[in-house]
Amino acid sequence: MVSTRRAFLGSAGLVGLAGQAIAEPAPAANDRIQIGLIGAGGMGQGDARFATSLPGIQLVAAADCYDGRLEHVREVWGPQVAITRDYRELLTRKDVDAVIIATPDHWHSIITVDALNAGKHVYCEKPMVQKVEDGPAVVEAQKRTGRVLQVGSQYVTSLVFQKARDLYREGSIGQLNMVEAWLDRNTALGAWQYSIPPDASEQTVDWDRFQGRAPHRPFDAKRVFRWRNYQDYGTGVAGDLFVHLLSGLHLVTSSQGPARIFATGGLRYWKDGRDVPDVMLALLDYPKSAEHPEFTLVLKVNLKAGSSNENFGFRFIGDEGIMTTSMTELTLGKAVPQKEPGYSIGTFSTAIQQEFLKQYRERYPQKPAAEPAASRENEYQYVPGDNAHLEHHRRFYNSIRTGAPSVEDAIFGYRAAGPALLCNVSYAEKRACGWDPNAMRRT
Ligand SMILES: NC(=O)c1ccc[n+]([C@@H]2O[C@H](COP(=O)([O-])OP(=O)(O)OC[C@H]3O[C@@H](n4cnc5c(N)ncnc54)[C@H](O)[C@@H]3O)[C@@H](O)[C@H]2O)c1
Q: Is the distance from the beta carbon of residue 42 to the nearest atom of ligand 1 less than 6 Å?
């Protein structure tokens, strides 16, 4: 038996159905994978729900710094789930094969390395690291331990990006020149104004453990439950949101990353004590590689924008077409490349104009019939019900079971997170940053 994903609906009469199926064997009944959840907040519980909805995946343990979340884990998955405030205790458990790490960003690389060293497979939420310099240790630990590591930027598994990659590889837009990508939000929750539980205190929260390597401060519930707003724990809009865009871009173009990064922005609207910008714009130069020509990337996040709750999208601009994507749709606009250089001779004397036209027509004879239609539109839409997040988890457990390569391993994760985090460095230092995308280090 195989599990497959239905693909896109092509719009009538155009490219037609474009099948994109991820086929994999269903696990044998006894092929069980037992998981531990580290960081049982919004995304962690979401990840655990996706994971345990798949055949053979069982949640056996959870670690978190806030007791209320551990209680909720038991309410949802049952009282048999072992709970602890200390993730290291979870990692010593022999019944845990793999862990989901969904803590705040400042813990990602530390727990990932500890988990790999403990022999666990790791699904780590994006961004893989909080600081650029955290990356090499994760890459090394994955290589040395040979465990599966998959970063949780689920867009790389979305049908939109799989389709965009196929069209790009087929040359549908010709030579890539520029990419524009944006992820704008227009709600308080989109700007990370998350709810603070009424029992939040130093009794219910392990504040020291939460802070970890961050500078230690007096207890502050806002810092625990709205940690993204503070550089000590989060990575701002660049690490939180640009990283998704970079992951999608790298999947589509098979790029290793940019060589030069410049970002600007500011705190324009959510002046609630946060120390990260809510508006950011970045320009990234991608050098030529075997997979793509040199091109420029423009990234944008605005946490108070537009009329819809969330705008997510890309424009891949090539010399023969433009591919535009949203979360659920992809449109390919094809343009017939211009073959003639054209002319602008109106300011020359009449005699020279005539002479120019004569020479021009000798070189570019006028065609008797009209040119073919200048453009055609190809549109694709998700089949309703597809879920990239669920599929991303399915791929992780499939890699553990079959040894198939991780779709988003430590190197892929670092090549997305490194440049995203350098946007923060560029913003803070008010200058462009250099990055070697092959060696994955600053230049
Ligand atoms: N893939 C996506 O689309 C997506 C979406 C949302 C969040 N995320 C990522 O998921 C991660 C978690 O985000 P969230 O919104 O769930 O945050 P959250 O605040 O809801 O949950 C984080 C949890 O981690 C716990 N925690 C903190 N330090 C810990 C430690 N040392 N050990 C164990 N638990 C610890 C906190 O108590 C909290 O319950 C972030 O890295 C975020 O970027 C990814």
A: yes
73 lines ligand 1 (CB under 6 A): no
106 in the same domain as 193:
no
In a domain, 342, yes or no: yes
Q: Give the residue numbers spanning the domain of 362.
A: 337-371
Higher per-residue pLDDT: 221 or 374 = 221
Ligand 1 binding pocket includes 229 (Cβ within 6 Å)? no
Q: pLDDT tens digit string along 92-147?
A: 999 999 999 999 999 999 999 999 999 999 999 999 999 999 999 999 999 999 99
Helix, strand, or coil here: 408? Answer: coil
Domain shared by 149 and 162, yes or no: no
Alpha carbon of 236 to ligand 1 centroid (Å): 14
pLDDT band for position 321 (cuts 50, 70, 90): very high
